[in-house]
Amino acid sequence: MAVPPVSLMSLAEDYAKNIVPTYGRFDLDIESGSGCRVRDFSGREYLDFGAGIAVCSLGHSHPEAGAAAAEQAMRLVHCSNLYRTKPAADLARRIVEVTGPGKVFFCNSGAEANEGLVKLARRFGSATGRHGIITFNGSFHGRTMACISATGQDKVKKGFGPLLEGFTHVPFGDIGAVRSAVDGSTAAILVEPIQGEGGIHPASAGFLRELRALCDSNNLLLLFDEVQCGLGRTGDWCGWHTLGAADVQPDGVSWAKGIANGFPLGAFWVSDSVRDSRGPLCDLLGPGSHGTTYGGNPVCCAASLKVLEVIARDGLLENAKKMGVRLVEGLRAIGSPLISEIRAVGLMVGVQLCRDFPKTEKTPAIETVVRSMAGGLLVIPAGDAVVRFLPPLNAKPAEIDEAVEKFAAALRSFPTPA
Ligand SMILES: Cc1ncc(COP(=O)(O)O)c(C=O)c1O
Predict the structure, then answer these.
(1) 244 Cβ partners below 8 Å, 6+ apart?
(2) What is residue 348's three-state secondary structure?
(3) Does 213 lie in the same domain as 113?
(4) What is the pLDDT of residues 292-328, one digit of tens each?
């Protein structure tokens, strides 16, 4: 039987027929994007304040990031990690500059970066027979087996047991609970300085300092998952600096998302500190211990270098802080009884919807996102009752104000709670 040409099927039909249905997708087919906006196939524009879930830091189709990738693609797309390339060398140097003395491993996603940190912790602990990692309730670290085991949310684990052994979850921000969880098997603590998927919950600077002290006194690794909050989103290269904890130096950090504006790249950094007789931590994963075919891909690294260059050149760290304040002020000024709290660090903004939200078929967060979309604004749900705003770092004041207006209109479409 003849296969119908793709153009005769709607994207929705095509997806339903041929793509594994792991995602609860919104009913929107995106044709193209530019800056803060995406367009559907009818030409309708949407103000995109999700930026591909905190990925497109410079907005869609950024001409310089695109040109850097295109130029590199015409020179060399891939050669494997058996050889050296200049984009990977330049990018690693830049990441070390903004993070601290140490070394970088390149991979392809946030989950893969966290897998690397888990392996680092295991390798580190293996000398003393330890393999345990403490993580936090509400955290999200990715979808691989190690990462769902690390994640502090039951919904990602259902039906996938047995999970990777050795993870202990404790309440976020509760240093007493962390202390009690440390035992003879603990090797590391893995924490998102600002929980993203969990609904934009920043750690306090004091909590991060106490974690560092606890790690020092028990010879544990302190690992930061900055996949969502790192490399500029909060208004600093290091998300934890914006929290006032610039004095805290972790032993490992993971990134992905905003690192390359949508080109698939992940990375983790390991400090050069010496914790035992095996030498610097950053040399613990030696030849043959870890790898990935595409890691450090020259095209993604060239795009990433351009992204980091443009963020610095155009003052986008400062802009993220300023626009974050403007967005929060605008959202507060809506004065909607449907909003119970707004939590924000730079351009990571979470709107907590009220407990007595009007009854809807879907969760309050999804229903609010759907109505925002109907009004031409894309925002992202987190859990049942948080809506996230994660716009590009170069968002302009007029775009922030337009997002606030559109969000206010979406909220007005609900009945007011009694
Ligand atoms: C904090 C954090 N870590 C890890 C991940 C997983 O990243 P990826 O989807 O690129 O594997 C995410 C994705 O949302 C994240 O927010």
Answers:
(1) 205
(2) strand
(3) yes
(4) 999 999 999 999 999 999 999 999 999 999 999 999 9
Residues 201, 232 within the same domain? yes
pLDDT for the residue numbered 98: 98
Structure tokens at 39: 């367009």
Give the range of the structural domain holding residue 144, as residue numbers without chain letter: 64-313
CA distances in angstroms from 337 to 181, 201, 363, listed in the order given: 39, 21, 17
Q: How many helices (H) and strands (E) does the chain have?
A: 13, 19
Residue 59 contacts residue 49 (beta carbons within 8 Å): no
CB distance 238 to ligand 1 below 6 Å: no
Q: Whose alpha carbon is nearest atom 16 of ligand 1?
A: 228
Apex 58 CA angle, 56 and 60, nearest 5 = 60
The preferred substitution site among 151, 195, 197 for testing ligand 1, maximizing ligand atoms within 8 Å of CB, is: 197
Query: Is the pTM value of this prediction over 0.85?
Result: yes
Token digits of residue 59? 């907005």
Please indicate whether residue 135, judged by its CB atom, sits closer than 6 Å to ligand 1.
no
196 lines ligand 1 (CB under 6 A): yes
195 CB within 6 A, ligand 1: no
Is 1 contained in some domain? no
